[in-house]
Please model this.
Amino acid sequence: MRIALFTETFLPKVDGIVTRLRHTIEHLQRNGDRVLVVAPEGGLTEYKGAKVHGIPGVPLPLYPELKLALPPIGTRKIIEKFNPDLIHVVNPAVLGMGGIYYAKTLNIPLVASYHTHLPQYLQHYGLGALEGLLWELLKAAHNKAQLNLCTSTAMVEELVNHGIENVDLWQRGVDTEMFQPHLASNSMRSRLSQENPDSPLLLYVGRVSAEKQIDRIKPVLEAIPEARLAIVGDGPHRETLEAYFAGTNTHFVGYLQGLELGSAYACADAFIFPSLTETLGLVLLEAMAAGCPVVAARSGGIPDIVTDGVNGYLFEPDDPQGAISATKRLLEAKEEREQIRLNARKEAERWGWASATHQLQNYYRQIIYAQSLSSVA
Model:
């Protein structure tokens, strides 16, 4: 198959969507498919054998790491030359509308996928009044696709409830070879804890942005004064959070990748994830693959991954003491924590990227076949 991927975000940006796309592209190419990536310009022209067509864009005012990019007229020639069997639009917003346009005008089967819960994000940027309008725009875009994929059962239900049609589940995936418990090291633990390796070590990994609600970790840290917190990642909210966490045992580490990131997960005593806007929470699976116990809000796609008291702990989003109680319980029950580490790894082992990509290929084939039948009819 020849797949044209239109995505609003790609390398060199680092986030869960890009991680999923990287592994998906790699496995598609490895399995003999051919991929063209159309994305905001980032300096890449190729990734794992897939051609990357960069579109010039301008930084999003509220989120400079994201670029607004509209496909120029010349993109049509790129698409026609590649001659895709299917176009897959990832998080259709601005650039993605170009993918939808080309799919319709060139009569190419169209798949769209939903990864970022944008309507909920609006609340964190003072734009909550626009939520209804955004859902209408999302519905108009997604309902042009023959198939819409979500990465958790909660998001499947959410999209269906808002009138989006032909919705199905794209199963989760994680690199169980990259993230493993044996990567724990004394040097990484000392680095993350700022030379306090014997203190309880709490970890957050992900975008440092308002919608991730990282500020909700501060009461946990204050309730457990001997604990240290390492925040791995970067983003537009970092400066604000550095001021907010001033005077606490918090270390803003910046980006870590590869084996260093794997070691960070494996070293921590608890992975704290307070976000209420997660469609999946890929970093949770990465933490679990590394044997790091998770404390997370019972929200969005997270309950698909974390079973309370079995492979992590969940707290109710509206309980201000929930995260504190769950974290204390985890840190105090050492024997239970070790079993949770084992269970977390076992759960993660069920979800390799090869299996997730195989499922996606089956979806692609079904849509291509269905369109070929309708063309004959």
Residues 2-173+352-376 form a domain with the Rossmann fold fold (CATH 3.40.50.2000). The chain is about 40% helix and 20% strand. The longest helix spans residues 353-376. The chain has a mean pLDDT of 90.
